[in-house]
Amino acid sequence: MPANVRVTVWNEFRHEIQHEAVRKLYPDGMHTVIADFLSAAGGFNVRTATLDEPEHGLSEEVLADTDVLTWWGHVAHGEVAEEVVDRVQERVLSGMGLIVLHSGHFAKIFGRLLGTTCSLHWREIAEKERLWNLEPSHPITEGIGEYIELPNAEMYGERFDVPAPEKLIFVSWFEGGEVFRSGCCWQRGHGRIFYFRPGHETYPIFYNEQVRKVICNAVRWAAPRMEASFPACAHIAKPIEDVPDRQIDFGKAGIEQD
Asked: How many independent structural domains does the chain possess?
């Protein structure tokens, strides 16, 4: 892991422009709030990127200089260019970490990497959420107690159509009775992925100190341990050992010749 983890905080940045209630909470965008608390935590070099920037702010140069990408989107998932999704996918497979927040569950890149619809049930009535910490010894939950309680949250409920997490970190209970897998870890190629449920735009979720701590921890956890490119299988591999070429006897189909 580099001395300072290079983080790109990506945000759709539409609600903050279009809706006054969201703008009051995040006048300069959710991405700036996330970037600010990451910077304040220390150990991160942070930049931001948004949907309406050229290449959505995720050029090849930016991604090559990114160890971990955080992603928040909601109403404009379909506007994300496929070539940018391809680019992010290649970087994750090569070792870049990806932290998907809240409604980013429907992001093209998340569905592409997981291979499922990533659908779920939802309800927005400002109900209590309690995120139970299932893995108190995991790096993502360092400094987090038995649970995180959010007084007002949008409900996400099962079934959450994702592959079984390789590590399940949090399970949420909601006041209305539902439960949800709210902190899920996977690995794709060399890259680590963490989905974290909290983060609805009309509630001050990203000002909660425990939510901030989880995101900081997750970024450190997702930082690359190694990086390696994933080229197409276009090269014939040379044998490590000295092997005679028997193709004259068996042919390319592997059938013994008369």
From this structure: 1
Contacts of 104 (CB under 8 A, 6+ apart): 71, 72, 73, 74, 110, 195
pTM: 0.90
Average pLDDT estimate for 58-86: 97
Supply the CATH number for residue 101's domain: 3.40.50.880
Query: Is 120 a member of any domain?
Result: no
122-132: average pLDDT: 97
Q: Which amino acid is at 101?
A: L
Instruction: Count the Cβ atoms, other than its own, within 10 Å of residue 244.
Output: 7
DSSP annotation of 9 reads: E
* 144: in domain: no
- Domain of 64, in residue numbers: 5-115+182-250
Number of Cβ atoms within 10 Å of the Cβ of 71: 24
Cβ neighbours, 10 Å, residue 114: 19
